[in-house]
Structure formats: structure tokens, C-alpha cells
Amino acid sequence: MIKYGEHNRLKVNREVDFGAYLIDEDTQQEVLIPKRYIPANTQVGDELEVFVYFDSEDRLIATTETPKAQVGEFAYLKVIAVSRVGAFLNWGLTKDLLLPYREQKRKVYTGSHYLVRIYVDDKTNRIVATTKVGRYLEDAVLDELEIGQEVDIIVCDHNHIGYQVIVNKKFLGLLYENEVFRKLEPGEQTKAYIRKIRWDDFKIDVRLQR
Fold first, then answer.
1. Which one of 60, 104, 120, 173 is separated from 11 by 20 to 30 angstroms, measured CA to CA?
2. The pTM is what?
């Protein structure tokens, strides 16, 4: 099954003047990859790693471009325009990502960056973003995390205590100011280590050094 909003590995099934059709061999579902995204010397039968999404005309297409995040992931994205339907975010693809007004925790502004989660809207079946990320963050759990474990973090807001971070794209964490010895930028992704798991509120403290 072709998963849209995600990376797929698909086989080149047939060529056309404007590109090629890729196929998922399990379901026999096809998707178009426009000619400009096809690597040189690609032939029928080759497999390509592609990202599948809807283009500006709401057609399902494949691309070899790599987005900054895919469905189910968090990202720190820049608003490039605001319209009557919402804000549009640069997520690294030709078509910008919509952040609907109903999914804005607070008003957003062109030129600013915001932490968002990308998901598929059940009502419209479209790939969109939300700044209401709290409902997607999970409580820390014993069987996934342990003290000293290396994790991936996304740097979020900064205050007098330190930096709020997203841990492993799932959990909310805190990096204390006195644990930081270099400048961190909002949206930066880096490695960190679990310092403490606060079971009273299921949050995680991390540090940049072991």
C-alpha cells in the first residue's frame, strides 16, 4: 500500500512523456513521478525511494525531494505566507504545507518559525500541520527510556529555566540552562542524554553531555 505523507520504496512500472508511473507490487497501486524528479539513467524495473504527497492540484504524486518531516513527525518550520485558509509552511517540497487556522494554537506570522506536527486530516484526507502539539506528546514510559540513554531532541522554546525539547519525536523534555554550554537555535535537532525522568509529571530532563 502506498502511504502518502511518507517515504515509500516503489518500482518503476512504465514510462510516459511527462514522467513515469511507480507501482506498489503488493497492491498494484500506481503513482506518477514527474520527469523532473526522476534520477538520470532510471529504467523500468528500478526501485526508487520517494516521498508521496498531493501536489498543488491535489493529485497524488511522488518526488525524490526530501521534506523536512513526514506525517507523524515534529518539525520547526517557517511561515512563508498567510491566506484566508491558514498559513503556509516551507517543509522542503515544491508545494507548501498548510497550517489551518483551526490548528493554530495562537496567531502565526510570516517569516517566523513554529514547532508543528504533520498529520493527515481525517475530514479532508489532506496532509496538514498543527501547532497544537500537546495532544501528540506521550508520557514517558519505563520500557522505552532509561537514565543515560542517548536520544534525539528538537529544541523548542527558551525561558529562564532552559530549553523545552521534544525527545525522540514523542516526549516532552527540558534541557536546563546550566547544562547548556553553546548557543542552541529553536528547531535545531541534536543528540542528548536522559538525565532524569520525573514520574510526578511524566516529563524528561536531558543534558547534552553524558
1. 120
2. 0.81
